[in-house]
Design brief:
disordered N terminus, 2 helices, globular, 4% helix, mainly beta
Length: 482
């Protein structure tokens, strides 16, 4: 990859805006109303194509007259002046969660067009969407193997059912029953707003043939565990991940038993993606919370976030690192007085970029994974968009979203309450570039190049949030042409 060097300050805005109509863009100025807010299109789930040429995303639009929302997949070609977003799906059903195949020839996504939530695919060469999974139960979340030969999907199933048809039959009978009472022999009965009905989230593996179609039967990866994977009610794909070679899946799970409501004992497990062995608990020695497993780019290390005090869910998260070959585990940030919120490996696998709260501020950190040494920290964000001038102070600000590290040693992040995207030197932590955005950017940026000798681009979704004006904009930046 052509690197983003310290000349990143020379980045300039290449393109800005999605071609979506909203009342906020009307020619006649008027007060912003709740109707305007509801009618705004919303962009999420941005994903770059393997060749870096396109950004795939989900867009939600509201049919005000029908009193419902709908979601479709869109793509935009970046690096082309005045590129127009292209709608890829236009079905009455909801289409979400777009994922590229590793070769970029197919797009996998979730859709309800068959009557239930299933995985579908679009071939980039053209044609209609093809249904990939035809399971009797809904697919809740999924990921595509780095080799493109498997899917891992999350399904809600009854643990005592031998197959998926059993779960589907029992759910159908319950829906038709005139009785609504339920008996519970353990808690949770309800977790926040999610009622328990006896089903649990379970990971299954599905093999794909050369055409991207499912072959064979689904293989359960976590059914032997009395646990939800992902966790309820807020867990997602951040709780499971493929190894870089596609042979294993690491996931976080908490065993239920009789003590789930007061237990924080999530563990990180590892399981072969073909289900040839049972899940292996990698963190059994820690009775506190272990979660968000992520593999190093070369697959030699597995990292995750861990607490140390059992049953105390407000404990500090620290970063742990396990040598995949030897099994040796180290507490990388044990000497920190900060709780890691999110992290990612740099491309060389030698450092981790993390964000954490510090003295009422939200800061970005770089950690040497070998020594655990804090290489640098940088206060992230200002009060510019929360206070009048001259109270624009570099105190750090709340944020939603992660960072991305380039091979050239630049870390980009935009997820702050002020309307900026910033670039930091990964070696020193110095802020070397920033740009004003039309709205706050509560999403992880993506970066890529178009050709081996082509330009490199940075794309960030500026969608706003509860503390700022809502928006629906993608912004792209580019290095100057040579």
């Amino acid at each position: 990859m052509q690197t983003l060097a310290r000349g990143a300050a020379a980045l300039f805005v290449l393109s800005l805006s999605l071609a979506v109509a909203s009342p906020a863009s009307a020619q006649e100025s008027k007060p912003f109303s709740i109707d305007d807010l509801v009618r705004l299109s919303r962009v999420s789930e941005a994903a770059q194509s393997p060749d870096g040429r396109y950004v795939l995303y989900t867009q939600r639009d509201t049919d005000f007259e029908a009193n419902k929302g709908r979601t479709d997949l869109w793509q935009v070609e970046v690096g082309v002046a005045d590129a127009k977003p292209m709608r890829l799906t236009q079905n009455e059903a909801n289409d979400t969660s777009g994922r590229w195949s590793p070769d970029g020839k197919r797009i996998y996504f979730l859709s309800t067009r068959s009557g239930s939530s299933q995985v579908w695919r679009l071939d980039r060469s053209g044609g209609e969407a093809m249904q990939v999974t035809r399971l009797p139960v809904d697919v809740g979340a999924f990921e595509v193997s780095p080799r493109g030969d498997r899917l891992v999907v999350s399904l809600e199933v009854f643990a005592d059912c031998a197959d998926l048809d059993c779960t589907a039959k029992r759910v159908g009978e319950t829906e038709k029953s005139k009785q609504s009472g339920m008996a519970f022999d353990r808690v949770f009965v309800r977790h926040w707003g999610s009622w328990m009905d006896g089903r649990q989230n379970t990971l299954y593996s599905l093999a794909l043939d050369a055409t991207g179609a499912v072959t064979g039967n689904p293989v359960s990866l976590t059914a032997r565990l009395d646990a939800d994977v992902p966790s309820r009610p807020f867990g997602g794909t951040e709780e499971f991940s493929f190894s870089p070679d596609g042979s294993k899946v690491a996931f976080a799970a908490r065993l239920k038993g009789k003590s789930e409501p007061w237990s924080t004992n999530f563990d990180v497990y590892e399981v072969p993606v073909d289900g040839s062995a049972q899940p292996r608990n990698l963190t059994a020695d820690n009775e506190a919370w272990d979660t968000q497993p992520a593999w190093s780019p070369d697959g030699q290390w597995l990292a995750w976030l861990a607490m140390s005090r059992p049953t105390y869910e407000a404990d500090r998260f620290e970063l742990k690192l396990r040598n995949v070959k030897s099994g040796e585990t180290r507490r990388v940030t044990r000497d920190w007085d900060h709780s890691v919120g999110a992290f990612q490996f740099t491309r060389d696998g030698r450092r981790a970029i993390a964000n954490a709260d510090r003295l009422g501020q939200h800061a970005l950190f770089a950690v040497d994974l070998k020594s655990g040494k804090l290489l640098w920290e940088s206060t992230l964000g200002t009060t510019r968009d929360q206070a009048p001038f001259p109270m624009w102070l570099p105190l750090g600000s709340p944020n939603l979203g992660g960072s991305i590290a380039t091979a050239g040693g630049v870390v980009f992040i935009g997820a702050t309450t002020d309307q900026f995207v910033r670039g930091f030197d990964a070696q020193s932590g110095e802020e070397i570039w920033s740009a004003r955005l039309p709205y706050t950017a509560n999403a992880t940026p993506v970066t890529y190049r178009l050709r081996r000798d082509g330009r490199q681009f940075l794309v960030v979704a500026a969608g706003g949030h509860g503390w700022s004006e809502p928006g629906d904009t993608l912004v792209a930046f580019a290095l100057p042409e040579r």
